[in-house]
Write a structure and sequence with these properties.
The chain contains 18 helices and nine strands. It has helices at about 5-15, 35-45, 50-60, 85-90, 105-115, 120-140, 170, 185-190, 200-215, 220-225, 235-250, 260-270, 305-310, 315-330, 355-370, 370-390, 410-420, 420-425; strands spanning about 35, 75, 150-155, 230, 275-280, 285, 285-290, 395, 400-405. It has a three-stranded antiparallel β-sheet with strand order 3-4-7. Strands 1-2 form a two-stranded antiparallel ribbon. The model has no long low-confidence stretch (mean pLDDT about 95). Bound molecules: alpha-D-glucopyranose.
Protein backbone atom coordinates (compact mmCIF):
# COMPACT_ATOMS: atom_id res chain seq x y z
CA UNK A 1 0.00 0.00 0.00
CA UNK A 2 1.16 3.54 -0.69
CA UNK A 3 1.01 6.19 2.02
CA UNK A 4 -2.10 7.61 0.33
CA UNK A 5 -3.74 4.18 0.46
CA UNK A 6 -2.88 3.93 4.14
CA UNK A 7 -4.41 7.37 4.75
CA UNK A 8 -7.60 6.12 3.07
CA UNK A 9 -7.58 2.90 5.09
CA UNK A 10 -7.12 4.84 8.33
CA UNK A 11 -10.13 7.03 7.53
CA UNK A 12 -12.15 3.91 6.70
CA UNK A 13 -11.23 2.31 10.05
CA UNK A 14 -12.45 5.35 11.99
CA UNK A 15 -15.66 5.36 9.96
CA UNK A 16 -16.23 1.61 10.36
CA UNK A 17 -15.70 1.87 14.12
CA UNK A 18 -18.02 4.88 14.38
CA UNK A 19 -21.16 3.90 16.28
CA UNK A 20 -22.96 7.20 15.71
CA UNK A 21 -21.20 10.03 17.49
CA UNK A 22 -18.70 7.87 19.32
CA UNK A 23 -16.04 5.42 18.17
CA UNK A 24 -15.27 1.98 19.54
CA UNK A 25 -11.54 1.04 19.77
CA UNK A 26 -12.00 -2.14 17.71
CA UNK A 27 -14.77 -4.61 16.89
CA UNK A 28 -15.53 -7.41 19.38
CA UNK A 29 -12.56 -6.97 21.78
CA UNK A 30 -13.61 -3.42 22.85
CA UNK A 31 -17.22 -2.79 21.77
CA UNK A 32 -17.93 0.44 23.75
CA UNK A 33 -16.61 3.99 24.07
CA UNK A 34 -13.24 4.19 25.85
CA UNK A 35 -12.07 7.43 27.40
CA UNK A 36 -8.58 8.28 26.12
CA UNK A 37 -9.19 6.30 22.95
CA UNK A 38 -11.95 8.77 22.08
CA UNK A 39 -9.71 11.74 22.73
CA UNK A 40 -7.11 10.42 20.29
CA UNK A 41 -9.81 9.45 17.78
CA UNK A 42 -10.86 13.09 17.77
CA UNK A 43 -7.38 14.02 16.55
CA UNK A 44 -7.78 11.59 13.66
CA UNK A 45 -11.28 12.84 12.76
CA UNK A 46 -10.01 16.41 12.85
CA UNK A 47 -7.91 15.67 9.75
CA UNK A 48 -11.01 15.07 7.59
CA UNK A 49 -14.16 15.96 9.59
CA UNK A 50 -13.70 18.64 12.31
CA UNK A 51 -17.37 18.51 13.35
CA UNK A 52 -17.11 14.79 14.03
CA UNK A 53 -13.91 15.39 16.02
CA UNK A 54 -15.69 17.69 18.47
CA UNK A 55 -18.61 15.29 18.68
CA UNK A 56 -16.31 12.50 19.88
CA UNK A 57 -15.31 14.58 22.92
CA UNK A 58 -18.87 15.76 23.50
CA UNK A 59 -20.23 12.19 23.64
CA UNK A 60 -17.40 11.20 25.99
CA UNK A 61 -18.62 13.79 28.48
CA UNK A 62 -22.13 12.27 28.35
CA UNK A 63 -20.63 9.71 30.72
CA UNK A 64 -19.30 12.27 33.23
CA UNK A 65 -20.30 11.63 36.86
CA UNK A 66 -21.73 14.24 39.19
CA UNK A 67 -18.43 14.34 41.11
CA UNK A 68 -16.55 15.27 37.91
CA UNK A 69 -15.06 11.87 37.05
CA UNK A 70 -15.08 10.83 33.40
CA UNK A 71 -15.16 7.03 33.41
CA UNK A 72 -12.85 4.82 31.43
CA UNK A 73 -15.70 3.01 29.61
CA UNK A 74 -19.16 4.23 28.65
CA UNK A 75 -21.26 1.15 27.97
CA UNK A 76 -24.57 2.63 26.84
CA UNK A 77 -25.79 -0.95 26.36
CA UNK A 78 -24.60 -4.42 27.36
CA UNK A 79 -22.73 -6.74 24.99
CA UNK A 80 -22.29 -10.39 25.90
CA UNK A 81 -18.99 -10.37 24.01
CA UNK A 82 -17.36 -8.16 26.68
CA UNK A 83 -16.35 -8.80 30.27
CA UNK A 84 -16.59 -7.08 32.76
CA UNK A 85 -19.74 -5.35 31.51
CA UNK A 86 -22.22 -3.09 33.32
CA UNK A 87 -23.71 -5.89 35.40
CA UNK A 88 -20.32 -6.36 37.11
CA UNK A 89 -19.62 -2.68 37.71
CA UNK A 90 -23.08 -1.74 39.00
CA UNK A 91 -22.23 1.96 39.09
CA UNK A 92 -25.09 4.37 39.69
CA UNK A 93 -24.32 6.07 36.34
CA UNK A 94 -26.71 6.70 33.47
CA UNK A 95 -25.68 5.86 30.75
CA UNK A 96 -23.99 2.85 32.42
CA UNK A 97 -20.23 3.25 32.85
CA UNK A 98 -17.23 1.69 34.56
CA UNK A 99 -16.15 3.11 37.93
CA UNK A 100 -12.60 4.33 37.25
CA UNK A 101 -11.16 6.98 34.99
CA UNK A 102 -8.35 7.00 32.42
CA UNK A 103 -5.53 9.39 31.45
CA UNK A 104 -7.03 12.87 30.91
CA UNK A 105 -5.61 13.80 27.53
CA UNK A 106 -8.78 15.68 26.59
CA UNK A 107 -7.65 19.24 27.45
CA UNK A 108 -4.54 18.77 25.33
CA UNK A 109 -6.62 17.48 22.44
CA UNK A 110 -9.20 20.28 22.73
CA UNK A 111 -6.39 22.77 22.51
CA UNK A 112 -5.24 21.10 19.30
CA UNK A 113 -8.75 21.00 17.82
CA UNK A 114 -9.33 24.67 18.49
CA UNK A 115 -8.53 26.65 15.35
CA UNK A 116 -8.27 30.12 16.79
CA UNK A 117 -10.74 32.56 15.31
CA UNK A 118 -13.14 29.82 14.21
CA UNK A 119 -16.45 30.66 15.97
CA UNK A 120 -17.79 27.09 15.98
CA UNK A 121 -14.57 25.75 17.54
CA UNK A 122 -14.58 28.51 20.15
CA UNK A 123 -18.19 27.82 21.11
CA UNK A 124 -17.58 24.08 21.42
CA UNK A 125 -14.34 24.48 23.38
CA UNK A 126 -16.07 26.93 25.73
CA UNK A 127 -18.92 24.46 26.32
CA UNK A 128 -16.42 21.75 27.26
CA UNK A 129 -14.27 23.94 29.49
CA UNK A 130 -16.11 23.60 32.81
CA UNK A 131 -16.57 19.85 32.33
CA UNK A 132 -12.87 19.39 31.73
CA UNK A 133 -12.00 21.61 34.68
CA UNK A 134 -14.29 19.54 36.93
CA UNK A 135 -12.63 16.34 35.76
CA UNK A 136 -9.12 17.69 36.48
CA UNK A 137 -10.32 18.83 39.90
CA UNK A 138 -11.61 15.30 40.55
CA UNK A 139 -8.13 13.88 39.80
CA UNK A 140 -6.39 16.39 42.02
CA UNK A 141 -8.85 15.72 44.86
CA UNK A 142 -9.48 11.98 44.73
CA UNK A 143 -6.32 10.62 43.15
CA UNK A 144 -3.90 12.75 45.18
CA UNK A 145 -5.58 12.44 48.58
CA UNK A 146 -2.37 13.33 50.48
CA UNK A 147 -1.67 16.42 48.32
CA UNK A 148 1.72 15.11 47.22
CA UNK A 149 1.51 16.50 43.69
CA UNK A 150 1.40 13.05 42.10
CA UNK A 151 -1.61 11.20 40.74
CA UNK A 152 -2.32 7.70 41.99
CA UNK A 153 -4.35 4.98 40.33
CA UNK A 154 -7.07 3.28 42.26
CA UNK A 155 -7.01 0.42 39.73
CA UNK A 156 -4.41 -0.62 37.11
CA UNK A 157 -7.05 0.02 34.43
CA UNK A 158 -7.08 3.68 35.40
CA UNK A 159 -3.53 4.07 34.06
CA UNK A 160 -4.49 2.91 30.57
CA UNK A 161 -1.35 0.72 30.89
CA UNK A 162 -3.39 -2.07 32.36
CA UNK A 163 -0.93 -4.93 32.64
CA UNK A 164 2.35 -3.07 33.18
CA UNK A 165 4.92 -4.67 35.52
CA UNK A 166 4.65 -1.31 37.33
CA UNK A 167 1.63 -2.70 39.19
CA UNK A 168 2.99 -6.20 39.93
CA UNK A 169 4.16 -5.63 43.52
CA UNK A 170 1.18 -3.52 44.53
CA UNK A 171 -1.21 -5.98 42.92
CA UNK A 172 0.35 -8.93 44.73
CA UNK A 173 -0.40 -7.13 47.99
CA UNK A 174 -4.13 -7.21 47.17
CA UNK A 175 -5.69 -10.27 48.82
CA UNK A 176 -8.16 -11.89 46.43
CA UNK A 177 -11.67 -11.50 47.85
CA UNK A 178 -12.78 -14.90 49.19
CA UNK A 179 -16.30 -14.22 47.94
CA UNK A 180 -15.27 -13.11 44.44
CA UNK A 181 -18.20 -13.80 42.12
CA UNK A 182 -17.35 -16.52 39.56
CA UNK A 183 -16.61 -15.00 36.16
CA UNK A 184 -15.81 -15.89 32.58
CA UNK A 185 -13.34 -13.75 30.63
CA UNK A 186 -14.19 -12.85 27.04
CA UNK A 187 -10.89 -11.21 25.97
CA UNK A 188 -9.34 -14.65 25.43
CA UNK A 189 -11.98 -15.42 22.76
CA UNK A 190 -10.59 -12.57 20.67
CA UNK A 191 -6.84 -12.42 21.35
CA UNK A 192 -4.23 -15.11 22.08
CA UNK A 193 -3.72 -15.72 25.81
CA UNK A 194 0.03 -15.06 25.44
CA UNK A 195 -0.81 -11.40 24.69
CA UNK A 196 -3.21 -10.94 27.61
CA UNK A 197 -2.99 -10.83 31.44
CA UNK A 198 -2.90 -13.99 33.60
CA UNK A 199 -5.80 -15.24 35.75
CA UNK A 200 -3.97 -14.30 38.99
CA UNK A 201 -3.99 -10.68 37.87
CA UNK A 202 -7.59 -10.83 36.71
CA UNK A 203 -8.74 -12.11 40.13
CA UNK A 204 -7.09 -9.09 41.71
CA UNK A 205 -8.47 -6.65 39.13
CA UNK A 206 -11.94 -7.89 40.02
CA UNK A 207 -11.24 -7.79 43.75
CA UNK A 208 -10.42 -4.09 43.44
CA UNK A 209 -13.60 -3.55 41.42
CA UNK A 210 -15.62 -5.28 44.14
CA UNK A 211 -14.16 -2.86 46.73
CA UNK A 212 -15.46 0.07 44.67
CA UNK A 213 -18.82 -1.56 44.21
CA UNK A 214 -19.15 -2.26 47.95
CA UNK A 215 -18.22 1.37 48.64
CA UNK A 216 -21.07 2.42 46.32
CA UNK A 217 -18.34 4.02 44.17
CA UNK A 218 -17.67 6.77 46.69
CA UNK A 219 -14.51 8.48 45.41
CA UNK A 220 -13.19 9.49 48.82
CA UNK A 221 -13.54 5.98 50.29
CA UNK A 222 -11.85 4.45 47.24
CA UNK A 223 -8.90 6.87 47.44
CA UNK A 224 -8.30 6.67 51.18
CA UNK A 225 -9.31 3.15 52.08
CA UNK A 226 -9.12 1.19 48.82
CA UNK A 227 -6.71 -1.72 48.38
CA UNK A 228 -4.66 -0.04 45.62
CA UNK A 229 -3.21 3.45 45.19
CA UNK A 230 -0.07 3.75 43.06
CA UNK A 231 1.48 7.00 41.87
CA UNK A 232 1.83 6.77 38.12
CA UNK A 233 4.26 8.79 35.98
CA UNK A 234 1.83 8.28 33.08
CA UNK A 235 -1.24 9.79 34.75
CA UNK A 236 0.76 12.42 36.60
CA UNK A 237 2.60 13.65 33.51
CA UNK A 238 -0.43 13.50 31.23
CA UNK A 239 -2.44 15.52 33.75
CA UNK A 240 0.38 18.01 34.25
CA UNK A 241 0.55 18.57 30.52
CA UNK A 242 -3.25 18.74 30.31
CA UNK A 243 -3.29 21.31 33.14
CA UNK A 244 -0.87 23.47 31.16
CA UNK A 245 -3.11 23.15 28.11
CA UNK A 246 -6.22 23.89 30.17
CA UNK A 247 -4.52 27.02 31.48
CA UNK A 248 -3.79 28.12 27.92
CA UNK A 249 -7.43 27.43 27.01
CA UNK A 250 -8.64 29.44 30.01
CA UNK A 251 -6.63 32.40 28.73
CA UNK A 252 -7.80 31.98 25.13
CA UNK A 253 -11.44 31.65 26.19
CA UNK A 254 -11.31 34.49 28.70
CA UNK A 255 -11.89 32.20 31.68
CA UNK A 256 -9.58 34.09 34.01
CA UNK A 257 -11.67 32.96 36.99
CA UNK A 258 -10.14 29.48 36.59
CA UNK A 259 -6.47 30.30 36.11
CA UNK A 260 -5.46 30.54 39.80
CA UNK A 261 -6.72 27.06 40.62
CA UNK A 262 -5.02 25.51 37.59
CA UNK A 263 -1.73 27.29 38.33
CA UNK A 264 -1.87 25.83 41.84
CA UNK A 265 -2.17 22.31 40.43
CA UNK A 266 0.75 22.89 38.08
CA UNK A 267 3.08 24.12 40.85
CA UNK A 268 2.13 21.22 43.08
CA UNK A 269 2.84 18.66 40.34
CA UNK A 270 6.14 20.26 39.34
CA UNK A 271 7.32 19.88 42.93
CA UNK A 272 5.71 16.46 43.41
CA UNK A 273 7.43 14.62 40.55
CA UNK A 274 10.49 13.94 42.72
CA UNK A 275 8.41 11.44 44.70
CA UNK A 276 8.59 9.15 41.64
CA UNK A 277 12.29 9.68 40.87
CA UNK A 278 14.18 6.40 41.01
CA UNK A 279 17.89 7.10 41.40
CA UNK A 280 18.90 3.58 40.38
CA UNK A 281 16.75 3.54 37.23
CA UNK A 282 17.65 7.13 36.20
CA UNK A 283 14.03 8.06 35.72
CA UNK A 284 10.52 8.50 37.08
CA UNK A 285 8.86 5.25 38.11
CA UNK A 286 5.53 4.19 39.59
CA UNK A 287 5.41 4.23 43.41
CA UNK A 288 2.96 2.61 45.79
CA UNK A 289 1.43 5.44 47.86
CA UNK A 290 0.61 3.14 50.78
CA UNK A 291 4.11 1.74 51.44
CA UNK A 292 6.30 4.00 49.22
CA UNK A 293 7.84 1.03 47.36
CA UNK A 294 9.04 2.19 43.94
CA UNK A 295 8.88 0.21 40.70
CA UNK A 296 12.37 -0.88 39.54
CA UNK A 297 12.43 0.08 35.86
CA UNK A 298 11.57 2.61 33.19
CA UNK A 299 8.47 2.39 31.03
CA UNK A 300 7.19 4.39 28.08
CA UNK A 301 5.26 6.45 30.67
CA UNK A 302 8.55 7.47 32.34
CA UNK A 303 9.46 9.13 29.04
CA UNK A 304 6.45 11.46 29.31
CA UNK A 305 8.43 13.69 31.71
CA UNK A 306 9.46 15.73 28.66
CA UNK A 307 5.87 16.03 27.43
CA UNK A 308 4.87 17.29 30.90
CA UNK A 309 7.82 19.64 31.26
CA UNK A 310 8.68 17.86 34.52
CA UNK A 311 11.99 17.14 36.22
CA UNK A 312 15.20 19.11 36.79
CA UNK A 313 17.68 19.61 33.92
CA UNK A 314 19.93 16.95 35.50
CA UNK A 315 17.07 14.44 35.75
CA UNK A 316 16.07 15.07 32.16
CA UNK A 317 19.63 14.60 30.91
CA UNK A 318 19.83 11.22 32.62
CA UNK A 319 16.43 10.15 31.38
CA UNK A 320 17.25 11.12 27.79
CA UNK A 321 20.46 9.04 28.05
CA UNK A 322 18.32 6.05 29.11
CA UNK A 323 16.01 6.65 26.14
CA UNK A 324 19.06 6.48 23.85
CA UNK A 325 20.23 3.28 25.50
CA UNK A 326 16.80 1.72 24.91
CA UNK A 327 16.80 3.04 21.34
CA UNK A 328 20.06 1.19 20.71
CA UNK A 329 18.66 -2.03 22.14
CA UNK A 330 15.55 -2.59 19.99
CA UNK A 331 14.74 -2.01 16.32
CA UNK A 332 11.50 -0.14 17.14
CA UNK A 333 10.64 2.48 19.80
CA UNK A 334 9.24 2.97 22.44
CA UNK A 335 8.80 -0.32 24.28
CA UNK A 336 6.41 -0.21 27.23
CA UNK A 337 8.98 -1.83 29.56
CA UNK A 338 12.77 -1.70 29.58
CA UNK A 339 13.99 -4.52 27.28
CA UNK A 340 17.04 -5.03 29.52
CA UNK A 341 14.82 -6.29 32.35
CA UNK A 342 13.84 -9.90 32.92
CA UNK A 343 10.12 -9.01 33.10
CA UNK A 344 10.22 -7.78 29.48
CA UNK A 345 7.75 -9.68 27.27
CA UNK A 346 7.68 -8.15 23.79
CA UNK A 347 4.15 -9.34 22.93
CA UNK A 348 2.31 -9.26 26.24
CA UNK A 349 0.04 -6.32 26.81
CA UNK A 350 1.98 -3.36 28.34
CA UNK A 351 4.92 -5.55 29.38
CA UNK A 352 6.95 -4.76 26.26
CA UNK A 353 4.82 -3.83 23.22
CA UNK A 354 4.68 -0.37 21.63
CA UNK A 355 1.51 1.78 21.59
CA UNK A 356 1.25 4.48 18.93
CA UNK A 357 -0.58 6.92 21.22
CA UNK A 358 2.24 6.76 23.74
CA UNK A 359 4.76 7.28 20.94
CA UNK A 360 2.88 10.36 19.79
CA UNK A 361 3.04 12.00 23.23
CA UNK A 362 6.62 10.93 23.95
CA UNK A 363 7.87 12.26 20.62
CA UNK A 364 6.01 15.52 21.19
CA UNK A 365 7.85 15.91 24.50
CA UNK A 366 11.25 15.08 23.01
CA UNK A 367 10.65 17.58 20.23
CA UNK A 368 9.79 20.33 22.69
CA UNK A 369 12.86 19.47 24.76
CA UNK A 370 15.10 19.79 21.70
CA UNK A 371 15.75 16.03 21.52
CA UNK A 372 15.02 16.01 17.79
CA UNK A 373 16.89 12.80 16.97
CA UNK A 374 14.78 10.82 19.44
CA UNK A 375 11.57 12.50 18.29
CA UNK A 376 12.35 11.73 14.63
CA UNK A 377 13.24 8.14 15.36
CA UNK A 378 9.96 7.57 17.23
CA UNK A 379 7.90 9.04 14.44
CA UNK A 380 9.73 7.05 11.76
CA UNK A 381 9.36 3.85 13.77
CA UNK A 382 5.64 4.45 14.30
CA UNK A 383 5.07 4.92 10.57
CA UNK A 384 7.19 1.86 9.73
CA UNK A 385 5.29 -0.35 12.18
CA UNK A 386 1.94 0.58 10.66
CA UNK A 387 3.21 0.25 7.09
CA UNK A 388 4.64 -3.21 7.76
CA UNK A 389 1.99 -4.71 10.02
CA UNK A 390 -1.21 -2.67 9.65
CA UNK A 391 -3.32 -0.73 12.14
CA UNK A 392 -2.82 -3.01 15.15
CA UNK A 393 -3.54 -2.27 18.78
CA UNK A 394 0.18 -2.55 19.64
CA UNK A 395 3.45 -3.84 18.21
CA UNK A 396 6.34 -6.09 19.19
CA UNK A 397 9.44 -3.83 19.52
CA UNK A 398 11.80 -6.68 18.66
CA UNK A 399 10.14 -7.82 15.39
CA UNK A 400 7.70 -5.05 14.45
CA UNK A 401 4.83 -7.55 14.28
CA UNK A 402 1.31 -6.38 15.20
CA UNK A 403 -0.31 -7.64 18.44
CA UNK A 404 -3.76 -7.47 20.05
CA UNK A 405 -6.75 -6.23 18.08
CA UNK A 406 -6.63 -5.30 14.37
CA UNK A 407 -8.14 -2.24 12.61
CA UNK A 408 -7.69 -0.25 15.78
CA UNK A 409 -9.18 3.24 15.94
CA UNK A 410 -6.50 5.14 17.84
CA UNK A 411 -3.73 3.62 15.73
CA UNK A 412 -5.58 4.87 12.63
CA UNK A 413 -6.06 8.28 14.26
CA UNK A 414 -2.40 8.65 15.17
CA UNK A 415 -1.45 7.69 11.64
CA UNK A 416 -3.67 10.42 10.22
CA UNK A 417 -2.82 13.11 12.75
CA UNK A 418 0.91 12.59 13.03
CA UNK A 419 2.69 9.49 11.72
CA UNK A 420 1.68 9.41 8.05
CA UNK A 421 4.50 10.66 5.83
CA UNK A 422 1.85 12.57 3.84
CA UNK A 423 1.19 14.58 7.02
CA UNK A 424 4.88 15.36 7.44
CA UNK A 425 4.99 16.50 3.80
CA UNK A 426 1.84 18.62 4.26
CA UNK A 427 3.23 20.23 7.42
CA UNK A 428 6.56 21.10 5.78
C1 LIG B 1 -6.82 -1.64 26.80
C2 LIG B 1 -5.73 -0.62 27.07
C3 LIG B 1 -6.37 0.74 27.36
C4 LIG B 1 -7.29 1.12 26.23
C5 LIG B 1 -8.30 0.02 25.91
C6 LIG B 1 -9.08 0.27 24.64
O1 LIG B 1 -7.61 -1.85 27.92
O2 LIG B 1 -4.90 -1.01 28.11
O3 LIG B 1 -5.39 1.72 27.53
O4 LIG B 1 -7.95 2.29 26.52
O5 LIG B 1 -7.62 -1.20 25.73
O6 LIG B 1 -8.20 0.49 23.56
Amino acid sequence: MTFMDLDGRAIAILQENDRGGFTIPTRRLYPFQWNWDSAFCALGFATFDPDRAWQEIETLFEGQWADGMVPHIIFRRDDPDYFPGPSVWRTPAEPPTSGYSQPPVVATIIRRLLREGNPDDTRRAAALFDKTLAWHRWFHTYRDPFRRGVIGLAHPWESGRDNSPDWDESLRAVAVAPDLEPYERRDLDHVDASERPHKDEYDRYLTIVSFGRNAAWDADTIARRGPFLVADPGLTFILLRADRDLLALANTLGRHDATGEIEGWISLAEAGADYMWNEAAHGFCARNMHDDVISPALTNASMLAFYAGAGSPAQRTRLAAEARRIADSVPFLMPSWDPARSEFEPRRYWRGPIWCVMNYMIADGFREAGEDALADRIRRDTAALIERAGFYENFDPTTGNGCGGADFSWTAAIWLAWASPTRVAAAA
